[in-house]
Design brief:
Strand content: under 5%
Order of helices and strands: HHHHHHHH
Number of strands: 0
Number of domains: 1
Distance between the termini: 42 Å
Number of helices: 8
Shape: globular
Structural class: mainly alpha
Length: about 200
């Protein structure tokens, strides 16, 4: 049992060392998290405003597409600025990349299922699905970094997924989702960028 525990500690120490060795990893991850949180929280608020009749359908219809294009533009700029990550130190980055592809695939699947069933209920699960995936990626990041606040962010993501499901089909769900994106993506991203800046100072 003692050997097993030591092996686990060694593995975590190795992963932490890999993460800390990655050039620009925290800066890149922080900037991307901040951008994703701010952009998609804004989209979510606009979606809520459309559902309650504060803005017209013409505005809400293209909101998420505009948000996606804006996010990809930021992603391109950040990657150009930080350059390629080193071959080492990428466990958390790979986890987030997997989450990104999973979100893309799930949205495509939900769109197809919604079109096939002509029911909007399925797409209402999107906020819960995304927050649950955020929780999975933050769990990896917490194991790699060993930081307590990252673990709390993972737990908050899982809780947020359940809360969004409770309010499914209620317009307030999108306000809750926006708050979740600000607290669980934008704020952690800002913290990571500040920590990276202090480390380089």
């Amino acid at each position: 049992m003692t050997d097993d525990m030591q092996a686990i500690r060694d593995d975590l120490a190795y992963l932490r060392a890999l993460a800390e060795d990655g050039r620009g990893g925290a800066e890149r991850g922080g900037a991307i998290g901040l951008a994703a949180g701010l952009i998609f929280a804004t989209c979510s608020v606009v979606q809520w405003a459309g559902l309650v009749g504060l803005v017209g359908g013409a505005i809400t219809n293209g909101t998420w597409m505009v948000g996606m294009l804006a996010f990809f533009a930021v992603l391109f700029v950040v990657k150009r600025r930080t350059g390629p990550l080193s071959g080492r130190g990428r466990p958390a980055s790979v986890a987030w990349m997997g989450v990104g592809w999973a979100i893309f695939a799930l949205f495509a699947a939900l769109a197809v299922a919604t079109w096939r069933t002509q029911s909007p209920l399925l797409i209402y699960f999107a906020p819960s699905i995304i927050l649950a995936l955020y929780g999975a990626a933050w769990t990896v990041a917490a194991a790699v970094s060993g930081k307590g606040w990252v673990k709390l962010t993972a737990i908050g993501s899982f809780v947020g997924a359940v809360v969004c499901a409770w309010f499914i089909a209620d317009p307030v769900q999108y306000l809750i989702y926006a708050a979740g994106l600000l607290l669980l993506a934008a704020l952690p991203g800002f913290i990571m960028m500040r920590q990276e800046a202090r480390a380089e100072a």
